[in-house]
Amino acid sequence: MKISTRFSDSIHILAFINICQGIIPLTSNNIASSIETSPVVVRRLMSALNKAGLINTVHGAADPALAKSPENISLYDVFLAIEGDAHLFTIDERTNPQCIVGGNIQETLDGFYQQAETAAKAKLARISLQDVIDTIRVKQALKDAEKERRN
Amino acid sequence: MKISTRFSDSIHILAFINICQGIIPLTSNNIASSIETSPVVVRRLMSALNKAGLINTVHGAADPALAKSPENISLYDVFLAIEGDAHLFTIDERTNPQCIVGGNIQETLDGFYQQAETAAKAKLARISLQDVIDTIRVKQALKDAEKERRN
DNA sequence: GCTAATTGTAATTTATAAAGTTACATGATG
DNA sequence: CATCATGTAACTTTATAAATTACAATTAGC
């Protein structure tokens, strides 16, 4: 249980590529500065995003680009790229098979957890990177307007 | 990071109390044997379940009991008792506030994650401990029948 | 009441997964 | 060809949960 910040950071990377393309060079260093992490962590995540076909990267060149339009990249696509078939809930695999509870709890919970997990993933599948980008821009515009108002 | 099995183990404990009551003494030791963990871990979880009003325990006596009927205990009740308001997805809190992405990503993801998380928790809220117990019994009956058939 | 068994909890140690770091081979670009 | 960037492997650090140890508080059988 508990999905690591890799998922969040990956969405961050994709949004950054879209929003900052042409404004600043998209080096792993610059991206890492925005996430406040190390460039290697960024490159690791981008490697996975590349393999999953969400971005196109060029070995040696600081020129990554989204492989699809942001409307066609869902948060579940990102989750799959980074976490694969990881589960939101963890089943204790080491229980006593001799006991009626210990011997059947895994299969039982697996079914129920699946329901909850699928519901969550279905929601993620309906949220696009474009939604994320739009929301970021709205929030930023709000901040800018607020700042302007104060002058 | 180490993934928690507390939620699963807590459901295990509740099912065990219901199914094994009157059959074997419900000591933390016996429960721990079924989960294959230590009695202290079991007592810790039971302490939380007790505080949340899901079970009644007696200090010094090996006699825990469900505080409500299994139909009226949902998996979300258990989740709340053990994990509180813990999130299924983790937002990276340390990003560069100067960057348009780093400065707005938390609030943005929080909203979207909330949607997914609520969907999952709503499913959990609709699954009762009775459902879990019923499923365990069905699976066990299947195994028994299978075993019988082989003789 | 006394003894044995049990819970409840704190403190400590161990295990594990992710984050971060170092290093370097490979490839791009002016 | 010099510089800069990526892609990855190997290693270290850090965070969190599980397991262990210890013991006070409580119950229950005799």
In a few lines, what is going on in this structure?
The structure is a homodimer of 151-residue chains. Chain A is mostly helical. Chain A is built from six helices and two strands.
Protein architecture, described:
The structure is a homodimer of 151-residue chains. The model of chain A has no long low-confidence stretch (mean pLDDT 96). Chain A is elongated, with a radius of gyration of 20 Å. The first copy, chain A, has a two-stranded antiparallel sheet. By secondary structure, the first copy, chain A, is mostly helical. Chain A contains 6 helices and 2 strands; from the N terminus they run H-H-H-E-E-H-H-H. In chain A, helix 1 (5-20) packs across helix 3, helix 1 packs across helix 4 (75-83) and helix 1 packs across helix 6. Chain A has one domain (5-150): Winged helix-like DNA-binding domain superfamily/Winged helix DNA-binding domain (Arc Repressor Mutant, subunit A, Orthogonal Bundle), CATH 1.10.10.10. The interface between A and B is large, with 58 and 60 residues. Chain B binds a DNA duplex (30 and 30 nucleotides) through helix 3 and strand 2.
Write the SSE topology.
Two copies of one chain form a homodimer.
Chain A: H1 5-20, H2 28-35, H3 39-51, E1 55-58, E2 61-66, H4 75-83, H5 105-125, H6 129-150
Antiparallel strand pairs in A: 1-2
Chain B binds a DNA duplex (30 and 30 nucleotides) through residues 1-6, 27-29, 37-41, 43-44, 46-47, 57-63.
- Helices and strands of chain A, in order, run as HHHEEHHH
Strand content of chain A: 5-15%
Rounded to the nearest angstrom, the radius of gyration of chain A is 20 Å
DSSP summary: helix tally of chain A: 6
CATH superfamily of chain A: Winged helix-like DNA-binding domain superfamily/Winged helix DNA-binding domain
Multimer state? homodimer
Quote the average pLDDT of chain A: 96
Shape of chain A: elongated
- How many structural domains in the coordinates of chain A? 1
Low-confidence spans of chain A: none
Strand order of the largest sheet of chain A: 1-2
| Class computed from helices, strands and strand pairing of chain A | mainly alpha
Largest sheet of chain A: 2 strands, antiparallel
